[in-house]
Batch of 2 targets.
Target 1
Amino acid sequence: MKHKPITTAVHPVTWWSIALIQIAIAIISNTLAPILIIGFTSLACVILLDRNWAKSIRLYALLAAMVFATRLLFRVLFNFAPVNQDVAFQLPLVEINLGLGPVHLLGPLSFLALEAAILDGLRLAVIIFAIGVASSLAKPDQLLKYTPAAIYEVATAVSIAINLAPQLAQSIQRVKKAAALRGRSDGLGLTRSVIIPVLEDAIENIDIGGPAMVRSSAKNYNGVAIVTDPEDYAPLLAEMKANGGALQLATRFGLAKKAFTHTARYDSMIANWLTGLDEGAEAKPEAAAPVPSIFPAKLQLAFDRTEILRYGENSHQSAAFYRDTNPVAGSIAAYTQLQGKELSYNNIADSDAAWECVKSFDAPACVIVKHANPCGVAIDGTLLGAYEKSFKTDSTSAFGGIIAFNGEVGIDVVNAMNERKHFVEVLIAPSFTAEAKAALAGKTNLRVLVVPLSRVLNTLEFKRVGGGLLVQTPDDFTAQASGLKIVTKVQPTAQQIEDLLFAERVAKFVKSNAIVFCGGGMTLGVGAGQMSRVDSTKIASIKAQHAGLDLNGSVVASDAFFPFRDGVDVLAAAGAKAVIQPGGSMRDEEVIAAADEHGLAMVFTGARHFRH
């Protein structure tokens, strides 16, 4: 049956008035209810007045559905929701590196982010559908006769077509380029399915007008308030409400400082990316997806000051703590202080050393640090057991140290610390039970920190030297049983392999030259920071004797190779039965022969762990 056109007794102006009201409500609404009501209202009009649906309405409905689906897809793919929100669902995290630092796609999607995406998608869909319903029910062939709204509709359609056509053409070209580039990234450690922008696209996406307007507004802060941070919306609205719509000069100046910082960091990101490209990349802007070096020729860094510290490493030095603008998950910079005195320069440095060490273990672990060196490390079935074992290593050095745990601290751990009258500067854990918090509350000077647990490392590490900066990637090597090379006649037992891997992991966090005696999942003696490796071995043995710990049957880890056999002679005399070291010395054969002579098992890892 031939479809009949829609006919209604309602004047076309009325339909467009209703549509404009619906659009206005959809734009200003921040909740789903009014938007859904508008959508159902438009749908009801169509169902009641045209059960067969006009072809134009079907097209608008299809467009609305596509817009809604696209909005949801982009939210899931480019998920920038804060990680501390409740997770709606978890997707595999895809990480790519386009220069300084990783870029994450997918991953956990929070309820708040999902709700915002649904709200935005529905708002756009409802606006499109409302226009479609009005234009169809108002009889397009009579719009020019009855109302100037037709001019608005035609102008809108033409404007959309003009703006979207070039973008659509560019998108098609980029998809074709991306299809050609997929699969080329295997040697770069990138995910195949990720589309990496070619140089031409990257340059095209550099914003020029936006930063210029932001900077000009900031320069004229006497009469302009420029807002670049969404977190400022609420306090600014409150101040304007309290002052009759005005903002104080101090507020406008603060906003200007933020704006200049914002544009400066935007330019810094561009500079880091461009100066990290290989020479000649500009000659072939469409040839391949450029992956900038993590060491750009002109390095721009950005950090935010979080606090002015009482003093630096010593009382006559001034100091402050700066946080990375994008700190890695689970770093010490993400701490929340529950109680205690303000942190000092040395507190933060030692806390970082303790936290980086303890978070490297899978089993419940405890690390006690003094002057940036672990003086006691242990793993056990419980945090209480790990604490008791780590405290035994060096109870003298543990006094006034930093303690870090990789699990929730309960009242049993706090009671054990109190029984030993263990004075601690800082106590760190991912969480504390309510009972533990209540018991610790009486220690008003004790600094208690909560840090999210994550094994993610900094992308780069920095060390300031006179007139310059040393930059390197983090030491992310951890020995595995499958990668060990047994070089002696005596084969290590399964238990010795387990203890050797534990010892190697601890030695990684001890200042060089580092020697660590271990056994039964705990450190027995730690020799740190000596100019001679044999001296570190002797000190570690002496520390164990002073603690009353038996080294017979123990294992030893060395952060670097033994240059001579003397170190092996000392550790063998102390009672050690197995050694783990990188190997690579000119005298490896001499060292291995010494190990065979003493009946030791020795394994090489092939990786050194110098720490200065």
Note: Residues 1-10, 80-85, 142-151, 178-195 have pLDDT under 50 and may be disordered.
Target 2
Amino acid sequence: MAKKQHMNVFEAHLEKIVIVLALAFAGWVLHRAFFTTEASAPPSKLTQDAVTTARNLDQQRKKPSSALPEPYTARADKLINVPPIAVSTLDRFPLSPMAREQAVRIDVEQTIVLPKMLALKDLAVDVYRERVEITQGRDQHVADLDFVTVEAQFPMLELAEEFAAAFDDDNLKQKPKAVQPVVAMIELQRQQLRPDGSWTDWHSVSGGENPTVDSLEVKSQRYSDYTDAEFEVLIEQHSVDKVQWAAVQPPTPYPLARTQTKWLPPSERAEQKRLASTRERPERGDRRQRPGRGRGDGPATDRRERPSRGRPQGRGGPTSAGAMGEMGRMGPMPQMPGGMPPMPGMGEMGRGGMPGMPGMPRMPGDMTGMRGGTSAQPTWPLLDEEALQVWAHDATAQPGQVYRYRVRVGFFNPIAGRDWFTEKEKDLQDQIILWSPFAQPDKVAKVPPRTLFFLKPTRDPDIRLVQADVFHFQNGLWHNEQFLVRPGSPIGQLQEAQTPTGTRTALGPATGEPEFIDFRTGATLLDVIPESTHWVGLGGTLRSVVTTDILYRDTSGQIQRRGLDKPTWPEEMRKQHSKVVNAIKQQNQQRRGGGRRPRGAMRGGRGGEAMGAMGAMGAMGPTMR
């Protein structure tokens, strides 16, 4: 009985006993964790060093950022074995990863006097109006273009002798690689005549597209912008026959659209006109009786024969667009008997040269002078020319403006960047181009206007009503329209194209005709002054003419006064009117039997004379645009 009671007491206090034991164990654990002071083993030296390094790195990481350190550059004396005397020179030129064979250059001590740069001579200037093919991305269209060409003769053979005396002297310790003159570029600059009679400042002009040279365009005229190897490669690329001819005789600014004409430089164009004028005089009386005379025959297709002066066979300049391009210097093929016109594009076969693409210089007939040709030695093709014919174009000339030009030729400086210059020529050490003096033609260039207007009286009783005859050159044709204007009204307006029956229509571009003809002149009629007296005639034969005067504001904002009767017009204005009227008559005769007959139109004349009978018509002054 007593044993049973003892078991009941134990069971009744079992939970309390467990709690007491748990608390005792927890107290022991806490005592061991916080109050035990047993000695531990010290860390090793390796551990201490690692902790110190980690702390230093963490402190450096927390510091503010500073400028990045300079990149490591390998020096020549650490990469290659060189004599000690050359280390100081090589150390100035860090080797790039793409170091070339000639990247390191050691110059000897010597002095070279630069050759005398000669001047251009026999300058000529002429204005051209052509139909050209302009490509903008994937879009290609035909447009009218006025451009000016300045031509000159350069004493190339004499300059070659100057270069040889300066750079190819046997007394030199070290010769430059290029000892012959290599053309870098031709620079054409112009001034424009202001309305007040003064001239603008000189500035360079663009010559249009030149695919052969544009890819090798000189990026800078400073030698410091090139490496030694880049400059040598630049000269080598420009020394190629094709590139040299394209530099001194560039193609027309854009490919010509007509196939039966050939562009000629100013001197040859003037000679062709002279020969044509000489041959036409005895033929005027019997021109219609002579059989076999067609549109493609006549003096305009003849070319004067001229010696080649040793130039490479097949050398050529720009060409007109055609199936075969330009094929030499022989000119268009004569017309076949019976009046058959010459075949388009076949008039310029040349003398051994390869056919060129439209508007581009032909590949030279003698291929041995080009890099990669059959000759192992490079040649300078222009040196065969005692008097080298050069020219440059201004493709930005505007109709109705007057310009004057100056031109110079630049040749690569063979010793650019070297310490071989005299004290007087030290400023040319960083110049890669040696320029000839500027040469200026003695004549200005007058770009003919594309829009002309002439004011005349009407039969209307209202004297304030004036008739304006407006002529506009568009799409290679001269167009004419009459407008009635009053004071305060603009002279001319935009008109739709017109068919021969008089029905107005908008012709699409597929026909090659303009949808609209722009007869707007930019001038405004201001007032009409009746019964004005003018004295006309020459010398002592003056006579009075009473007419109506008009006041108008021209495109430059100047107020002009003119008489309405033709005898009172200035002489230059009367000549302009006669030329444009004759142009209208001639173009209508040439378009006999054609489709659409515009208000007077003429395709351009031969030899680049797209101005037709207007030729190189001068500016009309206030009545032009």
Note: The two ends are 143 Å apart (CA to CA).
